[in-house]
Amino acid sequence: MVQAGINKKITAQFGNKIICRIHEKAVILKASEMKITRAIVAMRKSAKEITGAIVAIGNAPTALFELCDLIKEAKSKPALVVGIPVGFVGAAESKRALRSLKIPYITNKSRKGGSTVAAAIVNALLILAKGK
Questions:
Q1: Secondary structure of 78-96 in the HEC alphabet?
Q2: φ and ψ at residue 21, rounded to 5 degrees
Q3: Separation of alpha carbons 85 and 82, rounded Å
Q4: Contact 50, 68 (CB under 8 A)
Q5: Which of the two ends of the chain, N or C, has the fewest CB atoms closer than 10 A to its terminal CB?
Q6: Cα(120)–Cα(80) distance, rounded to whole angstroms?
Q7: Strands of 80-83's sheet, edge to edge?
């Protein structure tokens, strides 16, 4: 859902691409086989591509936990993490894990957030970078 909310026109002007693997058949199959969330598998599969990128997470605390682990293990190093997962289970805790890392991030301290908030943050950054 974050992908759907990001301004594609401005993104294209910078020559960037938006990657979301949550619905890829290989991700779904691997998650089922390993009995873990698709969000975890998608983050693992994207580890090299997200190095130097902006990573925006709006819904899955498990994706943010996995990204934090990838960063700690030096398997990925995003330029910026927008970590705003929403929910009662793991959202606040995953944001706390993000805040403990020595990387640039944008987050909040509550269980609130979501895809619309993550997309709005990325869009605001794109508009600022564009200078208009």
A1: CCEEEECCCCCCCHHHHHH
A2: -105, 5
A3: 9
A4: no
A5: C
A6: 15
A7: 54-57, 80-83, 105-107
Q: What is the tens place of the pLDDT at every residue in 29-76?
A: 999 999 999 999 999 999 999 999 999 999 999 999 999 999 999 999
Of 56, 53, 66, 122, the C-alpha closest to 94 is: 66
For residues 1 and 20, is the Cβ–Cβ distance under 8 A?
A: no
Q: Are 26 and 15 in contact (CB under 8 A)?
A: no
Could you give the dihedral angle defined by the CA atoms of residues 5, 14, 12 and 131, in that order, rounded to the nearest 10 degrees?
Answer: 60
* C-alpha distances in Å from residue 82, one per residue of 25, 26, 30, 106, 120: 26, 25, 26, 5, 10
51 DSSP assignment = T
pLDDT tens column, 93-110? 999 999 999 999 999 988
Distance between CA atoms of 44 and 47, rounded to whole angstroms? Answer: 5
Q: Scanning the structure block, which residue is given the tokens 């002007």?
A: 13
Q: In this structure, are residues 57 and 2 in contact, taking their beta carbons and an 8 Å threshold?
A: yes
Q: Which residue type occupies 16?
A: N
Predicted pLDDT of residue 132: 60
